[in-house]
Amino acid sequence: MFWWQSTSLLKEIEILKRTNEELVRQLESANRKLEAATQKIAELEHKLEQANRDSTNSSKPPSSDGLQAEKRVHPQRKKGQRKPGGQPGHTGAFRRLVPTEQVQKVVHIRPSICSNCGTKFQGEEPGKMHHRHQVTELPPTMAEITEFQCWQVDCPACGTRNRGELPTEHRSAFGPRLVAWITWLTVQGRMPRRVLESMLETMLSVPISLGRIQGSVEEASVAVESVYQELQNELPQQEVLNVDETGWKTNGNRRWMWAFIAARYVFYWLDPSRGKKVLQNLLGETFAGVLCTDRWTVYLSYHRGDAQLCWAHLKRDLLGILETSENKEATRFARQSLALVLRLFRLWHRYRGNSLDREELQEKALKIEKKLFSLAQEQVNSPCAEVRCLARVFFLKTEKLFEFAHRTGVEPTNNQAERALRMAVQWRKISFGNRSEAGEKATSRLLTVLQTCKMQNRNSFQYLVEVIACNRRNLPTPSLLS
Question: Which of 67, 112, 127, 470 is the most buried (most CB within 10 A)?
């Protein structure tokens, strides 16, 4: 081989090396772009999956669904052969007649002529009552106004000028019933202030300002303060508590509305924090009873004793995996777990319907518990994060999922607390929260009292009237625990 041939080959080899290095760099760049694109696709798929989640297949509250949420599809029942309306044998629901002793006015209607022969009756003919009909009507809606005229009298002996003083309970411009009525419509009726202002002036001829409406609500808040404090002091002694929380606003600042459901009362608490210190302040460093909650980490880190985790939340999370995941292992896990959850709910409904006793409930629930534990054991290290999370809950928190089978007063879901918060959420959407600390206190106190009256089948309006009247006379406030 000649020297010029070897030189040419060396040049070709050098060119090939540079070409190879360039191709390697291009390949590495393409691999990096592919990895970035793959990661971006995974992120977009995750966002799309989250966008398809709503309150039916996740732990999101219904208030977050918005207008873009899909219409809920309910299972269609087979069309039966029965005609619409009441069926044969149905007793029906009728408005009961008030006893005659409680009727304000009685009108006797007697026939004046015979429908057969035309004989006119003189009124002395014997007869008997064959039918009672009652008409209920509102009295004329006019507020009752009492004027107190305070006189002054000069003493003839010493010349001292003496003035008549208003009784303590009548120093307000509005009586207890009107204040209670304004408060009830604001809280229980969730009526906006301007609508209430118009209603008072239109229906009762009572001109009122928005500030006076708020003043009436705050007066009722002060009146129920001791009742509210009494209920708060009883929280740590409760055997079972359902707890949940939702967002709130005060002057645009974040707050949290907490709801505690005991056996005989409901307790609301507004706090800037959603953390463990709220539970420590209200329930103590440790809570001796059963705490029924969702899987929010605050509850799990605070309470180490007996607890019940909400099965409704678990069911919705499993539905979310089933409806949005494309992983076959994940959907298989969700489908098998949902089948066990549905069996569990059917079992609970049978127990609630008295077709099962406590021992049978525990025996059948244990079989479901074992199957669920075995299913979760297979997926505790699943590559799917959601499956792995739920499997570890089933695997590590088993005793907190089946407490309802062993303790009276414990339910498998936290629906009681969620229903209690629904009223607060509706009020929040109308009022947009509070503007002051006094407003926060009024909100939590009055929600507590009115919802507790509802739970105890008390007349909440009459209770408010009584509490406000007692507060004005400096008398003890009637308890909600007796």
Answer: 470
Same domain flag for 295 and 329: no
Residue 468 inside a domain? The answer is no
**β 307-309/152-154 pair status:** unpaired
Bridge partner list, 434:
250
Supply angle C-alpha 112, 113, 115, rounded to 5.
135
Is residue 395 included in any domain, yes or no? Answer: yes
Our CA angle for 379, 291, 364, nearest 5°, is 55
Mean pLDDT of the chain: 86
d(CA 241, CA 290): 6
Beta strand pairing status for 161-163 and 152-154?
A: antiparallel
Residue 299 included in any domain:
yes
Q: Is the Cβ–Cβ distance between 310 and 413 less than 8 Å? A: yes
> Which CATH number covers residue 263?
3.30.420
Q: What residue type is assigned to position 325 of the chain?
A: S
- For residue 296, the tally of other CB atoms under 10 A from its CB is 15
Mean pLDDT over residues 315-335, rounded? 86
Of residues 59, 472, 39, the one with CA closest to residue 295: 59
* Number of domains comprising the chain: 2
Length of the chain: 482
Fill in the amino acid letter for 9. L
Instruction: For residue 456, give the nearest of 229, 268, 264 by alpha carbon.
Output: 264
pTM as predicted: 0.78
Whether 366 and 317 map to the same domain: the answer is yes
**Gap between the Cα atoms of 451 and 420, Å rounded:** 8
Q: Is the pLDDT of residue 60 over 80?
A: no
